[in-house]
Amino acid sequence: MNKLYLLQSLVIAAFISVVFAAPADAQATRTWVSFNGDDSNPCTPTAPCRTFMGALSKTAARGEISCLTPGSYGGVTIQKSITIACAPGMGSVTAAAGGAAVGITVNVGPNDVVRLRGLHILAATGASAGISFVGAGVLHLEQTVISGFNTGRAFGISFTPNGASELNVQDTVVSDNGIAGTSPAGGGILVAPVTAGTANVMLSRVTANNNVVGLSVNATNGAVHVSVQDSAFSGNSFNGVSLVTNPGGPPIGTIIIDRSSISSNGGDALSANGAFTQIFVARSTIAYNVGWSCRALNSASVNSFGDNNILFNSPNSGPCVPYRHQ
Prior knowledge:
By secondary structure, the protein is mostly beta strands. It has helices at about 1-20, 50-55, and strands at about 30-35, 60-65, 70, 75-80, 80-85, 90-95, 100-105, 115, 120-125, 130-135, 135-140, 145, 155-160, 165-175, 185-190, 200-210, 215-220, 225-230, 230-235, 240-245, 255-260, 260-265, 270-275, 275-280, 285, 295, 300-305, 310, 320. The protein has a 20-stranded parallel beta sheet that branches. Strand 1, helix 2 and strand 2 form a beta-alpha-beta unit. It is elongated, with a radius of gyration of 24 Å. The model is unreliable at about 1-25 (pLDDT under 50).
């Protein structure tokens, strides 16, 4: 009887282990990287991985990767919902050298959400973008520094979605990106959908300085709506904020700027070009720009709510259209 009972127990235990055991290649919801880690590790706090790419391969969709120690954790291509969150300055990414090199590429689907927090994204010689978003879905970027991308039309943030998408940037610095000179190109932040579909963008407490263009929005292929609050676009060698759409009509491009500074830029402070393009600015300072304070071309409009500080621009009287509060 005892032998029969023992045999039955062994069979039941084996069955349970088979049915309920996790598969060998199961991915964790939380993983960690460390300067002293190894990508052959399981990416746990006691056995962390060495790179973001190594940790990503072992992290489940909608999971989170964190930094245990300060370090440079390599470029990464993201193709699923994920969070990479480090204490500010703990995690850095240096894009490899080469004209097509990118620090972080995000290529996800319309239902995916990617969150990047606390990163320093730096350029090696010839890198073309700090963050390149080429899919759909949502990207949150927080407490991040992006600088030094200056090959071709290099941008610190290149947001070129192929469908309905959303970009939210908070507490972030984008500086020293693009190529200045007689043929300026690139800049701080680019928003330019490549296909139809609305891109909604929110910038809050963002500094875009010492780039070629601070913020460049191109709504030629898809509608773009941008909201900017408590931000600064200063010291850029060309325009502070630029908005372009198709001269013949839709798609539509709008930018709303509130409580911000657009100053000391080498071109216009605010520039809109094309039908169905509108920039609205309120409670902001527009000063010391070499170009116009507000420039509107080809049926565009740049609208002031009348409560801005606009001074010391050359010439100082750009066509800011008065727009009343409601």
